[in-house]
């Protein structure tokens, strides 16, 4: 079943030197699965994720032939309808907990805010739900974390708090923008298994945005490889390492490997026609 | 003889009246011309060791020796001509309102070296940047270009030792490859000694001859590069880091 269908998505910013197209005609569809979007910085992967939620501020423009979420056209939805979708049905985990959590609110207040305002829960019920959400993301001392301010948490804890916050309303689709790049490898594995469980048990759709090809190959079902605002290759994640496209190959080959050769790492050749 | 000796060093911070033991009784030594790697999770104390060498962290026990001599406190100007550091985040480590020229010529001015024009141009060339970049500001450069500038700045005084604190973790994979290649080339050309910190075992493996795994401020296990490649680690923690490493999971 298709949860999200995006056709010919474009994101444009007008600058002093003329319009800059951050996303140039991206199409994809997503079922209840894990879709990875990979690419370098500036490839448009984050903008693609934000455009789905229409989180691009003017003068940035979003254009698309269609952007259907569960049958509803997001391009035609009113601001009020979009607000009803955001968080509740489509969640987004931002990249950096340092900038995405409110620095002057305790974690507990931030976690319960939505529950109290949107769902009209009482303080006690909201707190119980927030504690359960923190436990679900493997935070060992949830009571202490509830009372803490964001600056009192490590990067990994902050990231898990953001994931917990997005999972409380049980969205149908979660857009995760580099949710694990601030984390140590061992914590990263934990966070991925939490996301994985949600996809399998709750049938959630997941868009996983990352610059890490190996991570995406391991974790996702399908992968879009983006370069300069375009999808250059779409393939099954388990076949990512046998990718044929020169850009995907270049990204894979420039990574060092444990026990690999010591010589210079191959540089990415951007001279092909695909790079235009 | 060892060029860098870290001899039973502890670093303790005092914050809000309680003690934080960032590094506890860590010892290792790095030979001249060697590349030595420190790996571990955040908070394992690996960056603190680099900062302690530079005199930027309170060493509460033990001794740090460079070339057999214990380092004076404060470090003094002789230290800067021997040891330089490249930081993790090239967006934060260059002065945003200084041109590249000013950033690179400042160490020359401090140390009273002449010929700064020629040296700055040469330094840019050595790290693969066009001479036209001299009068740009950091915000006009990409992340990889900034890190090249940071490396050029570290080399201005022609030190023997470079301390590299996660020099590529803020960069894209393709740019990381370019910066790692640059560092390897410079080490070979100038016979530099590297002490490199990273959380990425694959990067450490690519760059270093010997590796020290750290956890919670303590040394867990020291091994040679060949032992890492053959998975011959003896402690469970080093094994778990190795197993969680992204490129192992693909088998």
Structural description of this entry:
The complex is a heterodimer of chains A (276) and B (251). Chain A has helices spanning 45-52, 79-85, 97-100, 107-117, 123-136, 142-147, 155-167, 185-202, 213-219, 246-253, and strands at 4-15, 18-30, 34-38, 61-63, 66-69, 72-73, 90-93, 173-177, 205-210, 222-227, 230-236. Chain A contains 10 helices and 11 strands. Chain A is globular, with a radius of gyration of 19 Å. Chain A has a 6-stranded mixed beta sheet with strand order 7-8-9-3-10-11, sandwiched between helices. In chain A, strands 1, 2, 4, 5 and 6 form a 5-stranded antiparallel beta sheet that branches. In chain A, 43% of the residues are buried. Chain A has a domain at 1-89 and 214-276: P-loop containing nucleotide triphosphate hydrolases (Rossmann fold). Chain B is of the alpha/beta class and 251 residues long. Chain B has one domain (2-249): Rossmann fold (3-Layer(aba) Sandwich), CATH 3.40.50.300. Helices cover 37% and strands 28% of the residues of chain B. Chain B has helices at 46-53, 77-82, 100-110, 116-126, 143-155, 173-190, 201-207, 225-229, 236-244, 246-249, and strands at residues 2-15, 18-31, 35-39, 59-66, 69-70, 83-86, 161-165, 193-198, 210-215, 218-224. In chain B, the strands form 2 sheets. Chain B has a 6-stranded mixed beta sheet, sandwiched between helices. Chain B has a 4-stranded antiparallel beta sheet with strand order 2-1-4-5, with helices on one face. In chain B, helix 3 (100-110) crosses helix 4 and helix 5 (143-155) runs parallel beside helix 6 (173-190). The radius of gyration of chain B is 18 Å and the shape is globular. The chains are: A alpha/beta (276), B alpha/beta (251). Chain A binds chain B through residues 40-41, 154-156, 184-189, 211-215, 217-218, 241, 250-251, 254-260, 262, 264-268, and chain B through 41-43, 143, 172-178, 180-181, 184-185, 199, 201-203, 205-207, 228-230, 240-242, 244-250.
